[in-house]
Design brief:
Shape: globular
Structural class: alpha+beta
Number of strands: 8
Number of helices: 4
Largest sheet: 4 strands, mixed
Order of helices and strands: EEEHEHHEEEEH
Strand content: 15-25%
């Protein structure tokens, strides 16, 4: 172990440090080799809570809201494609998918079930769990402050059809709760996620 350069001398990760000009500690979000934030969030469809750091198997996390019609369908679609690959290739019970909404006002269990159907997500497979902070304040403190995903409501408070301006980020977290990759892109490559 280590003779192939895996982890670049960081025993907590399997993948080598990504080639970039910044160290993980200098980024405004958790990145390679760092622990995923120690947060527990409700999983409204299953009626339970999930400790993100304690999932115990490789996990993909991304951040979305179900009324988005631009970036979020791409992020969720990419995760769905990786999930489909895990089902087809027989490793579905070895990975988990954790999309986290930052719109708890509208993204309740019923809405998330409907959204899963719209996006062709196999929520009954047992490896896909929508997470939903309990309140708008908790979404801000968790998604923005802990995970580094900025979002801002861009319509007046009294409009039911409000939208968000937000950044895009997908995490690959190993079973021990360390970040292997932080993909800061609006369209992550599913093949790269599968390879990583």
């Amino acid at each position: 172990a280590g003779c192939l350069g895996f982890g670049d001398s960081n025993p907590d990760v399997a993948l080598a440090e990504p080639d970039r000009e910044y160290a993980s500690e200098d980024l405004p979000y958790p990145a390679w080799g760092q622990r995923v934030p120690d947060v527990t969030l409700p999983a409204p469809i299953e009626g339970r809570e999930v400790s993100v750091r304690s999932v115990g198997r490789p996990a993909l996390l991304t951040f979305f809201y179900s009324h988005c019609n631009t970036v979020c369908p791409v992020l969720i679609g990419t995760m769905r494609n990786v999930q489909a690959h895990s089902i087809e290739e027989g490793y579905a019970d070895e990975v988990t998918f954790l999309p986290v909404t930052f719109d708890p006002e509208r993204d309740d269990a019923e809405r998330l079930r409907t959204y899963a159907d719209q996006m062709n997500v196999a929520v009954d497979e047992g490896n896909w769990t929508f997470l939903r902070p309990e309140s708008t304040e908790r979404a801000k403190s968790t998604v923005e402050e802990e995970f580094g995903v900025a979002f801002e409501r861009n319509h007046p408070e009294d409009m039911d059809s409000y939208m968000f301006t937000h950044s895009a980020l997908t995490y690959l977290v190993n079973p021990a709760g360390y970040i292997e990759r932080a993909y800061r892109t609006k369209s992550p490559d599913p093949e790269r996620l599968i390879d990583d």
